[in-house]
Amino acid sequence: xxxxxxxxxxxxxxxxxxxxxxxxxxxxxxxxxxxxxxxxxxxxxxxxxxxxxxxxxxxxxxxxxxxxxxxxxxxxxxxxxxxxxxxxxxxxxxxxxxxxxxxxxxxxxxxxxxxxxxxxxxxxxxxxxxxxxxxxxxxxxxxxxxxxxxxxxxxxxxxxxxxxxxxxxxxxxxxxxxxxxxxxxxxxxxxxxxxxxxxxxxxxxxxxxxxxxxxxxxxxxxxxxxxxxxxxxxxxxxxxxxxxxxxxxxxxxxxxxxxxxxxxxxxxxxxxxxxxxxxxxxxxxxxxxxxxxxxxxxxxxxxxxxxxxxxxxxxxxxxxxxxxxxxxx
Length: 329
Ligand code: SAM
Ligand code: SF4
Prior knowledge:
By secondary structure, the chain is of the alpha/beta class. It has a single domain, classed as Aldolase class I (TIM Barrel, Alpha-Beta Barrel). The protein has helices at residues 45-58, 76-84, 105-111, 125-132, 137-149, 169-178, 205-215, 279-284, 289-300, 307-317; strands at 12-16, 62-66, 91-96, 115-119, 153-160, 182-187, 220-221, 230-234, 241-245, 258-261, 266-268, 277-278. It binds S-adenosylmethionine and iron/sulfur cluster (SF4).
């Protein structure tokens, strides 16, 4: 079992496989995209698989593939297939924008993927275009349909943005009436690759809940699982549920069980740090698995206490200009 220097169990890895994306969500990246990483900067699938194998041996039980958009990277199913065969891995899952996902749903099911996070900020096609700068709403809805038809659990991720999709909060809650999905409202964070000026958090988890409660006064609190990043709720009579993720307020750091690896192999101990170790470089320097493991253990024994500490350390150095597409959410 992996335990960090604050006594927290680490058992969850989020692996971002690419920084590239076929959408341009304005809260994530600028309209023109990012300065995409060169191919040689990206970890290869072999390097990713080896890192994951070492980490699973050390105690990682769950891996989430994310990005950028995972399905934009060529032959992504190859990596997912190899990961699904890792001894000791209990859960393999992914986060996708749903644009290219439909043709892979059957294969995902066969690999044992039980749950997928689908990003969807609105149920209105015009607003979808305004937010993502791409006309792909119908494809995302097809993905939602396809996942449900294959009995894959769906969590919808909705970033709550002042002036953009506040009118979508209630319709998205209403979606849970007849659809067995969990809709999770996420506080907007500053990781937009400087695509727009982050003017501070307008809609925190308290306000989001107030907005939902004003329309659904009988909303009930559910019991949250021990490492949950979301406060979870249920509306009586609805098939699905609601989650609220205090991603900016950072109320969940005390039980943080997750680490991240960026597409270029940076290990992040915290969403808000700027990387503590480059796994790709360690592998490319010729290190064996034991040497890699030693360096990882050292990094896990120096984890920051919370996202505020990480952000403070980082601001002293560079400030936050990163896009969520190079972090993976
Ligand atoms: N492209 C995939 C997708 O959108 O689902 C996976 C990567 S995306 C970076 C992962 C998650 O991060 C998405 O659910 C997205 O909504 C969320 N995200 C991106 N930028 C964010 C921001 N500035 N604040 C909060 N969440 C953000
Ligand atoms: Fe792409 Fe996901 Fe970022 Fe939107 S949130 S631009 S879909 S990586």
